[in-house]
Amino acid sequence: MIAKKIRATAIVKSDYDRNATNYDKVRFGTLGGQYVNKREQEFVASIIKGSRVLELGTATGRFATSLTQRGAKYTGIDLSQNMLRTTSEHTNHSISLVQMDASHLGFRNYFDHVLCIRTFHFLQKPTEALQGMFGSLKPGGECLVTFETDNPLRRLLLFFGIGASEQYYYRTSEVEELFVKAGFRIVRRGPVMRVPVTFYRRCPSSLLWILRRLEKIWPWPMHDYVLGEK
Ligand SMILES: C[S@@+](CC[C@H](N)C(=O)[O-])C[C@H]1O[C@@H](n2cnc3c(N)ncnc32)[C@H](O)[C@@H]1O
Fold this sequence. Notes:
Elements: E1 2-3, H1 9-19, H2 23-28, H3 31-47, E2 52-56, H4 62-69, E3 73-78, H5 81-90, E4 96-99, E5 111-116, H6 126-136, E6 137-148, H7 152-159, E7 168-169, H8 172-182, E8 185-193, H9 197-202, H10 208-217, E9 223-229
Helix pairs in contact: 6-8
S-adenosylmethionine is lined by residues 9, 12, 16, 56-57, 59, 62, 77-80, 83, 101-103, 117-119, 122-123.
């Protein structure tokens, strides 16, 4: 695991509050960013079907929108009030939004799915967070967590300051261990996206096809997932 200048929760909150207005433009403003969103939406849709869903870290609501369009009863939490407000503005369906720290969840035996996309690596107390996710689920419910990975290429990129962010980078085996410690049975694990997201976001549109081809053969997956069952 790599811990890169981990921010206090209050700093994470104020950073996301400040960045809520330009969040979508920075992440999904280029063709490469839109491609990543499309792939991640397809990935989530392949696992989360309808039913009661809890998302940790809503940001501006890309999954709140797509999940409710497919019939989910959606509850989202985020530290950032500005992110929650934007999620509410982006969603036409009725949803529940709560300002809450993902490491201190207060739900019990209610949800069919818990979803934590690109947020787990910011959490200061991952064990407590996973225990809270476990407690939030009904028996048989599933928990999907994605995270940015620790691998030799990541270490090289971080050494040169490329794509650096203040967060943890995990090996998949480390996240699996945390799942098991929280009580989950591992259903499966694997890559979500292999090529670094920062390459997609910065790639000129005319060269995007190269990254899309590389995606199939890239040896160091940069964004992985673990799916666990209660
Ligand atoms: C990189 S965004 C990802 C959001 C979304 N899941 C997505 O993939 O578009 C991370 C979000 O998690 C929120 N967040 C970070 N730490 C959190 C915590 N401890 N509890 C709740 N939300 C948190 C941030 O405010 C931000 O909105």
